[in-house]
Amino acid sequence: MYMAYGWPQVMPIEPGLCPSSQRIIYLKVINRLLLVVSPSHLELWSSSQHKVRLGKYKRDSSSIQREGENIQAVWSPDAKLIAVLTSSFYLHIFKVQFTDKRIHVGGKQPSALFFANINLVLNEQVPFSVENLTVSNFVCDNKHLLIGLSNGSLYTISWKGEFCGASVIDFHVGESNEINTAPFSFENGTVTGRHPEVHHLSPTLLGHSSIVSLELSLLSRTLFVLFSDGKLVLCSVSKRGLKQSEAIKAEKILGSGDAVCASVATDQQILALGTKRGTVELYDLAGSASLIRSVSLFDWGYTSEDTGPVSCIAWTPDNSAFAVGWKLRGLTVWSVSGCRLMSTIRQVGLSSVSSPVAKPNSDWKHEPLMAGAATIHWDEYGYRLYAVEENSSERILAFSFGKCCLSRGVSGLTYIRQVIYGEDRVLLVQSEETDELKMLHLNLPVSYISQNWPVLHVAASSDGTFLAVAGAHGLILYDIRLKKWRFFGDITQEQKIECKGLLWLGKIVVVCNYVNSSNTYELLFYPRYHLDQSSLLCKKSLLTKPIVMDVYQNYILVAYRPFDVHVFHVNLSGELTPTRNPDLQLSTVRELSIMTAKGSPASMRFVPEHFYKDYASVNQKSSQEPVRCLVLRANGELSLLDMDDGHELELTDSVELFWVTCGQSDGKENLIEEISWLDYGHRGMQVWYPSPGADPFKQEDFLQLDPDLEFDREIYPLGLLPNAGVVVGVCQRMSFSACTEFPCFEPSPQAQTILHCLLRHLLQRDKIEEALKLAQLSAEKPHFSHCLEWLLFTVFEAEISRQSSNKKQKAVSNHQPSRSLLEKTCDLIRNFPEYHSVVVSVARKTDGRHWADLFLAAGRSTELFEECFQRRWYQTAACYILVIAKLEGIAVSQYCAMRLLQATLDDSLYELAGELVRFLMRSGREYEQAPTESEGTSPRFLSFFLFSSKKLPADPKSSHKDQSAHVASVRNILESHASYLMSGKELSKLVAFVKGTQFDVVDFLQRERYGCAHLENFASGLELIGKKLQMETLQSRLDAEFLLAHMCSVKFKEWIVVLATLLRRSEVLFDLFQHDARLWKAYCFTLQSQPAFAEYRDLVEELEERLSSIPKFQEI
């Protein structure tokens, strides 16, 4: 897994002498060197820690005019020779030689960088220089070059400059040769149902097509030839390499006839084929070259009109991911399973209408590779992806990538720490302090990484407190709690260690060391408290280079090619402290050689034997020593190996990584102890459980939970948090800034719980007590309520599907289980206070036609409502109203809603009260029209019932005749509550009540003018209402404005004067007083005579000044 981080680095390229050809024609990384070839010159850069230009060769203008500009180039595998073909068909061969002049890059230690000279050693015109001839790219081995011509032939040239001649591909391969693409392919991991295609090869099939591209795999001796008509031909190459070009024979035709580029993953034997449609098709070369799946940006809202055809594809060095560049826009990195790991194209949301598929404008200037990607290439470690923008020759973008500590190879995997490591740092997922996961960038000490760049291995201790990090030489340890690094005290000892693998054995770090002087490998055991030769606990020589290592308790597994397995037992005597002298003895307990036609393992993990308590045939010895292990191969095949008899049981395929979870407890509560292991591939996450039978390893007894752990195709799983019961994944985020040209790529950790899977598994096996204990342990974990809801929802959906299937088959079994899984699930969740909200939430997510089945297991809806009502869980109780209407009838639901309405009003829950009023008004009308009809009630929540714009009738005498008693009861409840609030002058609550329930306050005020709304006198009213409203807060002023508007509508003078005074609304008071001089006189006297109203004197003066202009007020 590869994830981009940080800002892209820009590497400037000198401008050339060919302004008409603004492009870079060749980009390649070999031996920490980056070669860049442009139409007029060559540049050699360092691709190590410091990106420095080491040398260059610039052609003069006369050479370009005479021989043409550079159009194709290739670099020899030993990085010593460069071949360049010009547009006038001149072949230039350059030799790279390093000088003794060292480059100083800062720091105390001298750098290992030297300037280089690039010299022209051969300049000849090629024999095939004819008019209108075009050529493909070069491919090469150690001795020869191969280039394709537009006449359909291949031309061979030696690195010595010898022209070996042209040859035609042999298409006579027999009548039986044909290719059938897979009948069902996977589009980003999902079935597309594509029809098979059959291509027969014939001598004239491609006779008139020109060769436009070549792709060579030396390891598999395979050449891929792409023709101008979109056909890609797979050819076999002679053992002697490209020298015998006449021996190149066509084997198969791949693709759909619209191929534009191709790249092969040699280790996994997968071909990535780019098409004009903008999709990338993956083919399995190990088998019959069938189509595995295709990936594209279609599901993210982008079509070929947005991105154009695929322009280039580049696999990572370990073949676990590939980068795709498009002709018109953008770059994306995919995993083999179809997970989108990184993309430069700005994205709003998956399959979102707001996805930015529109044509780019000036707002998108910060997007990298906005004009498309011309060429891309990974460095040899996979830490940098170099990309050149289309029609650009002035710079190269270098994207920084971090790699996940996958369960592959010779480095251990932790279940406590999730780690991504880059070339000079470690990205650590932090999850202890808060529920939110965060990514911590841990930069390695400069004193270490400057001399031992890059980071090659990272392993975390089983307790999650230490990290072991190894670069080119030595290793360092990081104490996560103390935030301190530990080094070798003697740098000469550090330089003698060339780490090829790391493991943790408790508090001991195990190093697989390569001894350069003797070309041997050995295991070194160091205590984590001291890195020094004097503290070395043990040294064990190995047979050869290990390909896989694993550790469990005191056992270490080491595997060699092709498939030889050694298991060692570690016996530690003495206390492992600096003050003691502990003794470590290593003994071989098992050696076996597996004879198989399958490939070598890419990863192996012990499966703890004691975990399978029901496995009776295991003796005492094997209960301590693991005798089985999981084996993952490079092609994604996962199998279980019995090391007693050498038998290998194939479990599944298309797996990218897996975690053995059983027996991994570190002293804390392990919520995933019931799982055997998890794996991840194009199917998503699969959970494997042990069988309860006599043999827990029978393939058919393993249960895989299908949709419960479907990860987003932008989130890649990193590891597990056993104590939280979650899988931790990571996805890409981009942050944009006005001060930077490009966005910052930020890996963002995401968590997905697996608790619901575990609980369902236990309930399926009638482990009720274990399920309850596990749920109780998880009750304080985040998203516990969501887990219970998801558990009940998946079980209920399965029950609905089962019933539907039985109805279709018209087969009803006479034997019914004592308790269904749905009943067990409800009984489990009933032990937690979230039960009532979980049940009704699941009901809201399902079809109302199936509610009867749900509440048959969960309990009567009226009883659940009553329990919520008594516990004052009014929000949850309100959710049951619609369920009751559906199952028990409208009349019962109205009775419950009326009780709940009164309770919510008493607790001032006015928004919820408004929802209930809407329901009661709507259900009242439906009840009058069809009293017995309840089938039409929608299962949606109360927000479905919107308010009618029509108010309740104003005249109580005439309206009550037309209203039902039910509607009158609602009105009486609302009016009674409004009278209560107005009597106590609880005006803020009154405003919230009116807004929440849309109560007709105008009608109410008109009727209560001399009732509860009456003010005794102005002075007492002003003082009381001022205290109640607290006018210094914004919300209180808004409430007063709301009331003032309604008082003005009913011309309630007493309230208008009081509220306008509190709000200092002089214009309202002026309009009132200019027609009533007596009221103005009383108003002035009251405010001026009482000291408590001194704050309003400025308001009186303002009004007095305005009213003085009116003649009748001049005498006052």
Overall description:
By secondary structure, the protein is α+β, with helices and mostly antiparallel strands. 25% of the residues lie in helices and 31% in strands. The longest helix has 26 residues, at 784-809. Residues 173-186, 189-206, 349-364, 612-623, 697-707 and 929-963 have low confidence and may be disordered.
Short key terms for the protein model shown above:
single chain, 1116 residues, alpha+beta, 8-stranded antiparallel β-sheet, 6-stranded mixed β-sheet, 25% helix, globular
* Uncertain residue segments: 173-186, 189-206, 349-364, 612-623, 697-707, 929-963
Overall outline: globular
User: How much is the average pLDDT?
Assistant: 83
Helix content: 10-25%
β-strand percent reads 25-35%
Tally of separate helices: 25
**Span between termini:** 88 Å
Based on helices, strands and strand pairing, what is the structural class?
alpha+beta
Which radius of gyration do the C-alpha atoms yield? 39 Å
Q: Quick one: how many beta strands? A: 58
The largest β sheet comes out as: 8 strands, antiparallel
